[in-house]
Structure formats: C-alpha cells, structure tokens
Amino acid sequence: MGTLIRVLGFSLGLTLVFSLVANLLPQVEGEAPKDEVIDMDSLDMDGFVSFGEAVFAGKGTCTLCHNDMGRAPDLLNMDVVKASQDRLEDHRYVGQASSVEEYLRESLVAPGEYVVVGFGKKGSNDSESPMPKVDAAPIQLSEFEIDSIVAYLQAKDGHEVTVALPTLPEEEESLTQPVAVPAAPVAAATAEQALAQYGCSACHSVLSTESPVGPDLRDVGSRLSAAQIRQSIIDPMAVIAEGYPPIMPTSLVDQMMVSELELLVNFLSNQTQ
Amino acid sequence: MKPNHHPEGYAEIGQQWARRAFNTMFWAMLMMLVLGMLGIASEYTSMGSAWAAEEAVNLSAGAPEIQTVDYPKIGFSSRSVVWIAAQMHLFFAAFVLAVPLFVVVIEWIGVKSGDERYDDMAHEFMKVSMTAYSITALFGGLLAFALFLLYPHFMGYMTRVFDTQMLWYALLFFAESAILYIYYYSWQALRYGNRKWVHLSFGIGLNVVGTSLLFIANAWATFMMAPSGIDMASGAVTGNIWEIMRGPLWNPVNLHRFIANIAFGGAVVGAYAGYKLLSAKTLSERAHYDWMGYTSNFIAVLAFLPLPFAGYWLMAEIYAYSQQMGITAMGGILAWLFIVQAVLIGTILLASNYYLWSGMSRTEGSLRYQWMIKYIAVVLVLGFLVWVTPHTLILRASEVAALGGSHHHLLGPLGIMPAKNIAVNLMLIATFLSFQLYRRSDKQVTVSWAAWGNAFIVAIYLIAILNIIFAGIYYGYFTNTVYKVGSSVTQVVSTLVVIVAGVLIDSFMFKKAKILPSVWGQVSNRSQYALFALPVAFTWLMALMGYVRSSVRTHWHVYSVVKDNSVDNYIPAIGYAGNMMTIVTVLFLLCILFIFWIASLSNTKQIPPIKSEGH
Amino acid sequence: MMQRQKGNRLIMWIVAIGITVVFFYGLNQFIMSAQGLPLNLDLTPAQ
User: A206: which strand partners?
Assistant: First the structure.
C-alpha cells in the first residue's frame, strides 16, 4: 500500500508541476473573427485607415509573417510605397500592376505573381510564394477589408492614399475588432461618458463590462503610472502589453479632446481594484 | 531404397522450410487482405457516392455551413467532452498498438537466443495489454457517440467524405480482435519449434492490422488539418478515397505516431516493471522486474531518439502546406506551448539518462565510464536551459522600457530555432552516449581492430557535435531564412549518423566479446521513480501535442472548408488546456493502475478452505 | 618501440578524424543541395 501511495503521489505531483508551468505562462485565447456592423455614413479616411490597421494585425493575420523575424518583408518597419515602386521597376517583375495601389492589391490576392528575392518557398529559388491568397479561405478578407489594408499601407509612412473611400451603402461588413466610435461633437463630462464614447469597453475590461482582447483596466492604476496611461492612449504602439495584439486604435490622439483625455487618465489611475 | 544417413537432417531442413513458408505466407496473406480491403473500399466509395447523388433529400454536395444555433447543447462544454474522450482513446490506442510491436521483437529475440526469460517477459507484456484493449474500445465508442451527438453536421460531412472507409475500419477490428486473442491465448500451445514460428506469424499479422487501423484513423485527423481530394471552394468530394487519405500530412503523422506509440508503450510497461520491483517480495522477483524495467527503458529511449526527426518532418510539411498554419503553431499564439514541450522533453531525457546511469551500477565494467557522466549531465542541463529559453519574454511595460526592447540582447538569440536545434541535437547525442556507455559496460571487447573502432566512434561524435554547432551558428545567424531552416536537416542527419554509426560499429565490436557479470535487482529504489516520470511526462506530452494539432486549425473543423461556428470555436488559453491535460493524465494513470491490478489479479489464487474432519 | 606505438596511435587518430571530417563535409554539401540550397566549396550559401 505504501508503494502505491508513494508512486501515485509522485506521479500526481509531477503532473501538477506540468500544469503549474502551463498556468504560469501568458494566457492568450485565440479568438475567431467576429462579424460586426460598420457605420458607413460616418466613415472617413482616417477611420478607414485605422480599420485597415486593425485588419492587418487581426483578421488578416498579416503580422504572423510580416515582422522582423525574416519570414516575409517587414512591412511595419519599411516604407511600403517606396518599396513597391522599386519592385515595379525590378526586371523580375512580371505581374499586371502599374501603380503602387495595384501592386499592393495584387500582392494580396495573387501573391505568386512576384516573389521578393529571398522570401520564396524553400528550394523554389524565389519562384513560389509561401503567402496565401487573402481573399480565399482561411483568411477570406472582403473587398472592403482588402482596400482598407492597401489604404493603411499607403498612409502609414505618410504617403497619399489613392484608394477610394467606399461609399456604396453595404448591409453588413465583417471586421475583427470593433473600430473606435468617432468622437461626438460635445466633450464628455465624466470619465464614464468618455469610456462609452470612445468604445473602450469593446476591448478592455472596465467598469462593469469584461473583454479579453486588451489589458484589464480595472486595476491598471496599480500597474501603470499616470504618464504611462496617458502614453497608452496617445501613442498605443509605443509599448504593447505582453501577450496582447498591437491593435489599439492610434487615432484617439486626434479624436479626443484634452479634457476628455485628462478625465480618463485620472479615472484610470485610480483603478486599483 | 534411398540411403538415408541423417534422417533427422532432412526432417530439420523440412521443418525450416515449413516454418519459413508459413511465416511468409501468413504475412503476405494478411498484407493482401488489408490492402485488398482498402482497395475494395475505394471501389465502393466511388460507387457509393454515385448512389448517394441520386437521393435528393437535403444532400448538398459541398461542405455544410453550420450556424451557432445548429450545435446541440448538453449544458456542458461539448469540446471538453470530445477532448477527454478523444485523448483517452488515443492514449490507450497508442499503448495497445505499441505493445505487440515490441513484444514480437522480444519474442523473436527469445527464439534466437534460446533464453526463456525473453519469452516470459513478452508474454507478461501482452497480458498487461489485454485489458487495455477493452478500455481502448470503450473510449472509442464514447468518442464516436460524443462526436455524432455534439457535432452532427461536421460528422455528416466527414462520413460523406470518407464513406465506406469508415465501415472497413470497423470491420478491421474483427481481424484485430481475432488475431489478438489467438496470439495471446495460444502462447503456451504454440510454444516451441515449428509452432513458435506460427505464433510469431500471428504476432506479425496483429501488427499489420494494428498499423492499418492507425493509418486509417490518422487520415481523418490529417484531413481536418490539410484537406485533399475535395474541391477547396465548396468542399465537394472530387477525388477517390486514396486521394482523400493521402494528404500532405498523412505520412508524416503516420510515421510520427508509429514511432511515438512505441516510445510511449515502452514507457508505460516500464512503469509496470518499476512498480512491481518496488513491491517485490523476493530477490529473484526484484531481479526479474529490474531486467524488465531496463528492457522497457531501452525500448522507450531507442524509439524516442528518432522521434524529434519525425516531428520535424511533420512541422516541415505543415509549413509547406500552409506557412500561416506553421507559424501559428510555432511563431504565433501557440508558440509558448513549445516551451512547455521543452520542459516535458527535458524531463524525459533527464529521467531516462538518470535511469541508465543508475543501471550502470549493475556491472563493474561501468567504472571506466563513470567520469563521463557528469559531462553528459552538464550537456543535458545546459541544452535544456537553452531549449526552454523563450524568445518573447513576459514583461510589464516598465520592464520593457528598462530592458530597452521586448527581447533580451543576450537571451533573445538563444530563443530562436537555431539555438534550440543545437541544444536538442546535442541532448540527443548525449542521451545516445549514455545508452552506448551502458551497453558497453558489461562487455570486454576482444576484436583486434578495437582501437580503430573506438577512434572512429570518438571522431564521429566529435565532428558531428562540431558540425551541429557550426551549422546552427553560421546558417542560423549569418545567412537568410531558407538556409537557416535547411541547415537544421544537416544537424538532424549528423545526430542520426552518430546513432547509426554507434550501433553498427558496436555490434561488430561486440562479436565474441567477454561478457562481465551483471547483478540484477540491486539497483536503487530511487531509480525506479525515473520509470514513473517517463510515462507521466510522455502522457502529458501527448496531450499537449494533441492540443497543438487541434488548435492549429484555429476556427475551422476542416481547415478552410468547414468553419467552426460553435461557442467553443476559439483556441483555449494554455492554462485551461494544461488543466485539461492534467485531468486526462490523472484519468489515464488511474486506468493504468486498474490494468496493472487486473494483470496481477489473474495470477492470484485463493487458497481453498480446509474441510474439517469427522462431522 | 614505444615511439613507434605512439606514432601509430597518432596516425590512427589523424586518419579517423580526417576521414570523418571529409564525410561530414560531403554530407553537408549533399543535404543542402538536395533541398535546393547549394553551397560553395567553403560551405557558404551559393544563392
């Protein structure tokens, strides 16, 4: 009996050690893309570009490969428009595009047309692209989403956006993460109003709602200083909380009024639950 | 009258031919039976689909579009139910497929060497496996019912795709059961001479059928990950059953599971041996189970060594099929999992090495190798530390600011694959060295070319290690991605060269070697716990890899064909998954204890009561 | 006598290591080119 207890105890103990290791690591859930409604009437170019940025990091799953690890061109850290112009002039280019916008769109829906040197499939001598077609399964981006990504890639380095803003009224559009609701003309009077106005609870757990997308704000005051909270709102890409996707809208700095910003910073600094 | 000077000579030759013929015939017959069944299945499949098309009721040719409301609800997470049922079934299926594989080999060694102990041990292993066979079927039934109840539309699609192949799978179990019962129960009846070869043929047949079952079931899982034989846009079946089964991931999974099953089976019977040794009452019992434990560990380690290569092939095929799927597994949301895997494999390597070192105390010839153990231990620990180093660190915003970035400038480079490949390959070589030293411990080599042989072995170890380090550092950090990835193949082959060369050279060097005496049974009790650590780690590791395999499909039942719209269509966080793995591991441990107990119970005889006299 | 034995031993080691180095060099060349990743004579990437 003693043997049985010792053996069982040892085996259970070891199992629990493994369980403990799994529970100590950053806990991230892989959400499936959700369908949401987008308000076409109030959509402006800034919102469209932000939306494209969100798709780039979210449903498009672009950042899986397009990062600094060397698998695919590091789009976020290079001037995409300039690179596209260079590629169009490359003697190896045999695609159908004649403008940067067409090149970008072609790269998304027909990535095999032209493979940048050094990024082809192993053994294919850069003749086959490992990139999937984004308008087919499993990514299945819509026309709207593809256009928004092109717009984002043009806008992010300060170039002119040549993509036309979609104006046709659409019944529904799919997007991964909800876009921040555009600013109301009147300044919010309380932090709670500001939170509601800028749709923070869509991604963050705050007040009485919960969301797993972004860091929990109900105790943010004990993690970040007021200056860090302010920076997170003004420049969300400066520091990304570990384990979270870099998808917080960067347009709040343009939309929010200073009074609303200070209301939020004060409120969140006191969230130390 | 024909002169017959050696009547027994002719009879013996006749017997030899009889047994060879029987052996070959039986094997060929079974192979043909299995292949024939699968071949017929393909015929019927194409016919079956034609018949199905004539029915007009609700049979869309393509994949179903399942809405969230379509999923049946039982008040309990459907995914958890299927998760547990599937994982338990896979544990036991792996075990009952593995045991006959090494039992037949041990039985054959018994015939070749004439040593009865091998035959007895083989028989004892089979006894343990018999109860497990029933439990496999029980969980299989539970899994099937759970799948059809909770995911009817998905299963409707799968049955439409795989058609009669599923029926053949079920029918094959009749062959499996029949051969299994014959193999086990005829053990003493077909014990010697010609009959023994017949018995071995049944063993081979059992393995052929078992492997066929494994390959058929693997096709379902790999189809879900990388579908083939269908129109990708609509999901409609366009190919025959072979095209459906032979997707890009089928053979990598076949190879990986075949080898991994053997390692897992060896680990589990090792736990049986360890447990029996600790509860042994006599010295001869201890000796018997010490030897059994050594054999089991031998099997587990031998099968474990090529496993990373099979896993590597699988990952490479996943990357080739869909770079996105590959990166999701190892560079995206599931990346941390492979750090947990490092912990588990570190446990496995340390435990099996420790057991080998403890075992070296059985012979005096081990003393000349003792000095190497500490270096092997250092390599293992360092390798483990490098392997477990993550690329992305768990940091708070303030820590990122202090560090000057999200990656450590020293540890960051250790967190990527080139460093880990160096670590893994060196750990495998170190483990093989422990193995080789143990095998040499009880032998005194007598061949004339021993010095040359040893020189080559040392040279191969040295140059292979240097090659692995060179390939990892140069191609890993100083060339582009495709060369970096390609160099890992050279590393892996270098390790394989060490293993193959070591085994080959040693097998020739040991010819006519003087065998030093081994003392069985006096090994420390502490070392037996290594035999428990092995199956626990293996079991948890299997569950972990199952979690990866399922999650890599993200929100798809059948990747990019049948979307998962259930409430559980997200990848669960690793903590939750870890808890599920612990649940199934504990469940498995309890079932295994039950199985060991049943095996002992069948040997227990109650003493009949003494009848009182004169009343 | 001892000198000759030691000399023989040295030759043995040099030969063993030499053959092994050549073998692994050839292995590297073969495996990389089989994957469509040819190497130069000094083992640097040729593409």
Answer: A209
Token pair in block for residue B542: 């299997």
Q: Highest mean pLDDT range out of A212-221, B150-159, B393-402?
A: B150-159
In the structure encoding, which two tokens stand for residue A66, read together?
A: 């397009």
Residues 7-46 of C with CB under 8 A from A: 35-37
3-class state of residue B246 by DSSP: coil
Averaged over B448-468, what is the pLDDT? 95
- The residues spanned by each domain of chain B are 364-517
Chain B residues within an 8 Å CB radius of A240: 406
Distance from CA of A122 to the nearest CA of C (A): 7
In this prediction the pTM is 0.78
Residue with tokens 């032998």: B443
Structural domain range at position C28: 1-47
Take residue A156 and report the two structure tokens written for it. Answer: 């992010």
CB contact under 8 A, B456 and C16: yes
B563 beta partners: B556
What's the half-sphere exposure (Cβ side, CA atoms, 13 Å) at B64? 21
Sign of the Cα torsion A249, A33, A21, B256 reads negative
- Angle at the Cα of B214 from the Cα atoms of B102 and B555, rounded to 5 degrees: 135
SS3 state at B562: strand
Phi, psi of B444 (to 5 degrees): -115, 115
Sorted by where each begins, the domain ranges of chain A are 35-174, 191-269
Interface of chain B toward chain C, CB-CB under 8 angstroms? 451-452, 455-456, 458-460, 462-464, 467, 471, 474-475, 479-480, 482-483, 486-487, 489-490, 493-494, 497
Q: Is B507 exposed, middle or buried (0-12, 13-18, 19+ CB in 10 A)?
A: exposed
User: Would you state the structure tokens that stand for residue B319, as one six-digit string?
Assistant: 């990357």
Angstroms from A217 CA to nearest CA on chain B: 14
Q: For B325-345, write each residue's pLDDT tens digit.
A: 988 887 778 888 888 998 999
Helix axes B574-601, B337-359, angle to 10 degrees: 30
Q: What is the CATH number of domain A191-269?
A: 1.10.760.10
Contact C16, B459 (CB under 8 A): yes
Answer whether C28 sits within 8 Å of B474, measured CB to CB.
Answer: no
Closest among A76, A81, A82, A79 to A237, alpha carbons compared: A76
pLDDT band at A68 (very low <50, low <70, confident <90, very high): confident
Indicate the CATH number of A35-174 among 1.10.10, 2.40.10, 1.10.760, 3.40.1000: 1.10.760
* CA Rg value for chain B: 27
Peptide bond into A138 cis (omega under 30): yes
CB atoms closer than 10 angstroms to residue B473: 15
Which residue on chain B is closest to A30 by alpha carbon? B571
Cβ contact A5:B530 at 8 Å? no
Query: Bridge partners of A30?
Result: B571
How confident is the model at residue B44, as a pLDDT? 44
Residue-wise pLDDT for B428-440, tens only, equals 999 999 999 998 9
Judged by a CB distance cut-off of 8 A, whether residue C47 touches chain A is yes
pLDDT tens digits, A18-61 = 999 999 888 888 888 877 677 777 888 888 898 899 889 888 88
Give which of B495, B516, B346 is closest to B422, Cα–Cα.
Answer: B495
> For B578-602, what is the mean pLDDT?
92
Structure confidence at residue A167 (pLDDT): 74
The top-scoring range by mean pLDDT among A130-134, A179-183, A252-256, B588-592 is B588-592
CB < 8 Å to B477, chain A: none
Question: CA nearest A123 in C: which residue?
Answer: C36
Q: Among positive and negative, which fits the CA dihedral A94, A97, A100, A102?
A: negative
